[in-house]
Amino acid sequence: MTGNHREKTISRRRALAVTGGTVAAGGLAAAGLQSAFADTADTTADADTTASATSTSSACMTLMTSVTEGPYYLDGALVRKDITEGKAGVPLTLRLTVVDATDGCTPVKGAAVEIWHCDAWGYYSGYTTANPGGSAPAESEEGDSANDLTYLRGYQVANANGVVKFETIFPGWYTPRTCHIHVKVHTGGEKEDGTYEGGKVNYTGQLFFADDIAEEIFTLDPYAKHTGSYTVLADDMVYDGGGAASGLLTLKAVHKKDPSKGYKGSLTLGVDPDAENTGAGSGGGGTPPSGAPSDAPTGTPPSDSPSPSASASS
User: Fold this and answer.
1) Does pTM top 0.85 for this prediction?
2) Which of 6, 122, 148, 285 could be bridged to 174 by S-S, CB 3.0 to 4.6 A?
3) Span 166-193, pLDDT tens digits
4) Rounded to the nearest 5 degrees, what angle is found at the Cα of 283, between the Cα atoms of 282 and 285?
5) Closest of 236, 100, 97 to residue 164, by C-alpha
6) CA 93 from centre of chain
7) b vs e for 51-84, b when ≥16 Cβ sit within 10 Å of the residue's Cβ?
8) Which one, of 238, 202, 250, lies nearest residue 99 by Cα?
9) Rounded CA separation 5/237 (Å)
10) How far apart are CA 301 and CA 75, in angstroms?
């Protein structure tokens, strides 16, 4: 696969600090989707996360710039750990640790971390008729049980160690972007009616994957049914080459010889709880591929959700 987009001119606001080194994650013992999501060592892992964050405060103070939320954001995501809704793909357990970069990298208990990303063929929930570029089956051909307005979107609220954990799948890709996950960090709100309400957004950003791992994943089913020119990190319009400080995840395979068993990804995010950055309309998040709407999803948002955000299409 070769990169196909070299635009690098995006404006950014410095609203977040991220550790220069990410949190080490332990392997998973058994195969398959459920085993990759098993969490038998939460206490130990969370303690390790906290120790790593508090012992690397200088790295934590390395600022990471904020980027646009992109054209596929929807308000009203559900508070839940498992966001797959039956979507097929390589399992991914994602552990993110939120710390206060203005206070010695202490854990930010109660921070709400929101993520959203495309499925294995490049489709986002709420925008399932948008062409992901290249050649891919229609999203409806996957035959899963996912809700077309909510799959692969969700919130988790940080525990006392600042840790959130999601069970999802490895994202696919769409033209002209590299493989990525969108993320927002909220503080000051509360869980209400199954979602997260109020407060403010401290950070809007994206998480990235090493090219060699992504390209290996994309040779597997169902990813392999989406063909075309995949954009590598060096050619992406958002990733700026800064490693962990730019959102590059640390990834550990569940089974080194079989990538289909899944991955465990981790990153420590150091936020300023007094900062505010929604990401709406700022920077360059990737122009939607042909057929993608710039400001509204297909269909109607979930009945308990506000109207979708009218974010920029650039």
Assistant:
1) no
2) 122
3) 999 999 999 999 999 999 999 999 999 9
4) 105
5) 97
6) 11
7) ebbeebbebbbbebbbbbbbbbbbebbbbbeebb
8) 202
9) 7
10) 9
